[in-house]
Amino acid sequence: MRVVLTGGGTGGHIYPALAIAEQLKADRPDTEFLYIGGKRGLENSIVPETQIPFETLDITGFRRSLSADNIKTVLRFLRGVQSSSELLEKFKPDVVVGTGGYVCGPVVYAAHKLRIPTLIHEQNAIPGLTNRFLSRYVNTVAVSFDGTQNQFPKAKRVMYSGNPRATTVHRANAAEGFRMLGLPEGTPIVLVVGGSIGAKAINEAMLQMVPDIMRMPDVQFVYVTGKRYYDEIKRGLDEAPWVTPANLKVLPYVERMPEVLAASMLVISRAGASFLAEVTSLGIPAVLIPSPNVTNNHQEVNARALEDEGAALMILERDLNGRSLLEAVEAVVNDEYLRARMSERSAGLGKPDSASIIAAELRKLAVRAQAIRRGAL
Q1: Which CATH fold topology does 2-163+352-374 show?
Q2: Which of 11, 72, 179, 325 is most exposed by smallest CB count within 10 Å?
């Protein structure tokens, strides 16, 4: 099978696409791929490292207010459709998969016009603008959150698949996570992470909370500041009037996050959909601080979905400070029954077979298209 993957801008769009590729390759090693991304997104640094052939389009998103830039966006979209058509006709894929971001628009739409089977995956509880637009043209829409199928009323077929990133992370080795952190296996770990670049609000609350983590001496805090904030946080800790607690490890970035996640007993984080898929795949209790600076406030909706099921506690950023964060952490760390219940509820939301579900759907689409071309249907 020949598969085109497209998705870009953020890791939340890119890593699910790569998880699908990983599953397809595991099922059929002779599967061939082409990844089409945008010129400005993170995919430019992430995808080439996977050795998947990579092409780019010059594409931007629409501004939500009236703007002359939207005219340029329309022109870029039309040029993107033309460029995508040329790439697709050359590669001749059996199926095209879109995982979100502006670049998906012209690629998936071009595939539709060329009658190539298409599937889009929506990571968030509230769909993005591009996936809303594409849903009426594709063969299948796959959603991460059960109950959000009705968000795509014009789609031909909507299926609950979970997030394929869950499959990748479910295989993570906890022992390797402890080794990477230089900690004995079984050490209770609270992982604090704000994403690859970090989250200013979480960092500020953590600095306020640090003196009080000595109240939990048996718990190891692994605090991932993000590369942007690491020097600032280290300076703040060094200049503080108190000694940095021995049970605090501060890191700018974690290269192999799945293994560290697998070793953790509690996670404090934002509420990006792909990261939540990883957390629930491993059944980890979470304290979630959704970013308010995202389209349609979708992170709060993502976080509330876990909170409503008893898998997480949520603190809105406007209520976040050292005290509120400490209270949430102590509530979970000091209550073994609550922690076990949250873990069970989290695992119940996880879909570790997500990538397999999507891979099976892609094979069905490809086989049906091949049968149509042969005149068998």
Answers
A1: Rossmann fold (3.40.50)
A2: 72
